[in-house]
Write a structure and sequence with these properties.
alpha+beta, two-stranded antiparallel sheet, globular
């Protein structure tokens, strides 16, 4: 089993355990990190992404239109059927990883695990191998306009142009996962542990976002 395939399976297993036993009220809980979605909608999205990825209909991040269509695809479908679709698609993803080298959409599932945990007030797995892998990838992709050094638990990442002085940020991989993917507001970004004034880099920190309101997890 490839590394990404294993991490996808581990994350899926945690999510399945997390939502096991939810009643209708639980499934209808609004997800603050995705305020237009309920817990059920996030599960529908995860199932649809896995199915589309395994079927060759998706090879990268979905557009807003594609994402809306993915959730709508499961409108009126009971949760057991959604989970069954996801399990089937996951099995195909693992087979494809072994036979063709097509890796599963690990970033999407890692991000949404913590969206769901926040909605259900059940934090955990913040130091998982999946968080570590995706956060490191997100840090390696930073392209700030000034020299920037980001320090996490046991490593640091240098990005931006050469030269001095460097702006430094001390953070964690979990927080990196959240601020890089639009789960923190601009005021929260500015309030992080910076060595100096971060104004010039704030709008270069996130791939999408930022959150419109503070998200405290």
């Amino acid at each position: 089993m490839t590394t990404d395939s294993r991490l996808y399976r581990e994350t899926m297993d945690r999510i399945t355990a997390l939502v096991s036993g939810l009643d209708e009220k639980g499934w209808a809980t609004v997800v603050p990190a995705c305020p237009e979605w309920s817990v059920r909608d996030v599960l529908a999205h995860l199932a649809a992404v896995a199915d589309d990825w395994a079927s060759g209909r998706l090879a990268g991040p979905a557009t807003d239109e594609q994402t809306a269509a993915q959730v709508a695809r499961f409108s009126g479908v009971d949760i057991d059927a959604i989970l069954a679709t996801w399990a089937d698609a996951s099995a195909r993803l693992h087979e494809l990883a072994e036979t063709t080298g097509l890796e599963p959409p690990l970033g999407d599932i890692v991000i949404h695990e913590h969206d769901l945990r926040g909605a259900l007030d059940r934090p955990g797995a913040r130091d998982s191998d999946g968080v570590r892998r995706i956060a490191d990838e997100l840090l390696a992709m930073l392209e700030p306009p000034v020299p920037l050094r980001v320090r996490v638990e046991d490593d640091e990442y240098r990005s931006g142009p050469d030269g001095e002085p460097e702006l430094a940020l001390t953070t964690t991989r979990f927080e990196t996962l959240r601020w890089r993917t639009g789960r923190r507001s601009r005021s929260q970004l500015a309030a992080m542990d910076w060595s100096g004034d971060p104004t010039g880099v704030l709008d270069h920190l996130y791939l999408f976002g930022p959150a419109q309101a503070d998200l405290v997890e």
